[in-house]
Amino acid sequence: MSDPSSPDDARRTWEQLLRQMLGEDGARDAMEALEAGGFDPAQMAQAAGLPGDAAGMQAMMAQMQRMMAGSDGQSVNWSLAHDIARQTAHQGGDPSVTAAESARTVSALSVADLWLDAATDLPPAGGARSAWSRAQWVEATLETWKRLTGPVASSVSDALATVLTSGDGALGGLPEGFGGPGAGDPAAMLRGLGGSVFGLQVGQAAGTLAREVFGSSDTGLPLLEGPGTALVPSNVAAFADGLDAGAEEVLAFLAVRESAHARLYAHVPWLRAHILGLVEEYARGISIDLERMEESVRSIDPSDPDALRAALSGGVFAPEVSAEQAGALERLETALALVEGWVEDVTARTVAPHLPHGVPLREMMRRRRAAGGPAEHVFSTLVGLQLRPRRLREAATLMASLVADGGPEARDAIWVHPDLLPGAEDLDSPTTFVARREEQGRQDAEIDAALADLLDGGDGSGSSGTGPTGPGSSGPGTA
C-alpha cells in the first residue's frame, strides 16, 4: 500500500490527479510550477485527505470523472442531484416512519377532509394519504424540480462553455489537452461540469427542503404529479416542539392545510399546468449576457471545479431577466399568492370550530413563510424563482372579501378559468376587487347587448331606441 505521506508517492498522487484534469503535458507543467513555488506534495496530500492506496485513488478519480464527464446530454446531472438530495435530507438523521406515526398521520389527513367539506365545495383530492420520511419526500418531488430548474440550467451551462472555450473570450480558450487523453470536446466537458454543478446545487436545495417541509404543499408549487396528500412526521414533530399548541393540534392544523392544497390542485384541472407553464415561460426567455459573464470569470481557473462551483453558487452566472420574464415572474408570484391565500382562508374557517390555537398557528405559518429558508435562497439564485409568495396577506384579504360578499362559492369561483384570476393590480386593492369585477361585468354585458342588437339589425343601442342606461351610459342620440 502506498503511503500518502511519502514524498514520492504523494507526488505521484498529485500528478495523477492533475493528469486526469489537464492531460500529460499540462500536469507536468503544473507540477513544475507548483514545486518551484515551494509546494510540498506530501503535506498537501495529507491535508487534502487524498487516498494513498491505488483502490482509493481509483475511486476518487472515478468520482472526478463523473463530475467532468457530464450529464449524459442533460442540462443537469440528475443522478448527482438525486444522490446529493438524499444525503442532504439524511443529515441530522432521517428515521423511518413508524407504524404508529403512519396511522396517526393518515388519520389526521382523513379527519381534515371531513372538516374541509364544511368550508369548500371542492371535493377531496383522492389518492393516497401517506406519512413520508425525508428521503421519501425527495423521491416524490424530484421530477418536478427537474422541470423547474432544467431549462435555466441548460442556458447557463451552454453560455459557460461558450465563454470558457472561445479563443477570443475572457480566458483565451482552454489549455491544450484539457481534461486528459480521450476527454473529447472541451465544450461538452464544460457543459457536463456545469450540469454537475447545477445537479449539486439542486440536490442540496431539495435535500434541505426535505428537512424543513411539513408535506407536499409547503412551497405552494404543485410538486406531485397526481392526487394525494402526505406529511413528514419528523418535521411536523420538530415544528410542534416548544409551541403552546399540543402536538396533535399542530398535526391536525397542518393536515388541513395539506388537504386543502390537494383539493385545489386536484379539482382545478388547469392550475398545475398554468403555474408550471409560467415557470417555463420565464425559462424560455433566458438570455445570458456573455460579455458580463466573461468579465465575471476572468479570475476563475477553468480547470478548477471548486472555483466554478463556488462561482455558480454565488450567482456569478445568473441570467439577465428581461421585461417579459419579469412579467412572467410577477404572474407566477401572484398565482402562488392566490393559492396560498385561498388555502389560508379555507384552513382558518375549517379549523375555527375544532382547534383552540388555530389563529396563532395561522400567524406562525405566515411568519415562517415570510422568513423563508436556505434552500429557497439557493433556488432564487439558480432560477430566479421566489418560492414564497410575497403578497400573502393581500391575497388572504381578497379571499375574505369574496366570502363576505358572496360566500365560499364566490371565493372558489375565481378558479373557473385562468383569465378570471385576480392580477397583481387586484392585490394592490383587494377590498375593492368585488366592486371592480362587478363593474367590469356590467360593461361587458352592455357591449354584448349592443353587438347582439347590431346583428339583429338594430342601431347597436342594445334596446328599443332607449340605449343602455345606468352609470357611465351616454344615453340615446349621443356619440
UniProtKB/TrEMBL annotation:
Pfam families: Zincin_2. Gene3D superfamilies: Zincin-like metallopeptidase, N-terminal domain (1.20.150.30). Residues 454-479 are annotated as: Disordered. Residues 457-479 have a biased composition (Gly residues). NCBIfam families: putative hydrolase. This is Collagen alpha 1(I) chain. It comes from Serinibacter arcticus.
